[in-house]
Write a structure and sequence with these properties.
- The structure is a single chain.
- The protein has about 180 residues and is an all-alpha fold.
- The protein has 10 helices and no strands.
Length: about 180
Amino acid sequence: WAFSGWCAGGWEEQWSKAWGPLFFFLTAWQMVALSFSFTGRRDVGYLTAAFFVSMPAVPLVASWAYAEAPLWLSLVCATGRMMLWQKSKKGFDLLLAGFFAAAAACTKNEGALFVALSSLWVILNSHRIRDFLRFLLPSLLTYGLWRVYTIKSMDVSNRAVKALESMDWIGNQWFDVLS
């Protein structure tokens, strides 16, 4: 999503806005597929997606080119794979869940919290370190490499903190007045 906007020559508003509805549709489709796989009823799948799609803020936010739409897709895919793992205990499902969780973490900071909470959920449900690592390692490697890249190649500092740091001389003056 973001990389394709960059490849198009920068953060092109029209280019990025085209991805929101696509991720929105894929999220709803994934909800249908997951609900159907767990219940065996297509109508339940459609109802699940209809609840998601009918929330007024959801289509609106998806049309704004914000990072929520790719985050929704990553979270739904990761959660779905973790639920499939809980049902089948196949390690591949957990590995894919880790990669989807990493995609969520790379998309927004809320995804990093999702990785942490999901890791806790995996260890509490499995009690096996192998399953915990099978989920956490793809997340940490992917998200870790992304964080290193963003810190080294982008200015990710906070302007407000820079302003406070530059006002350090005010604090020093108070020490001069008090002494």
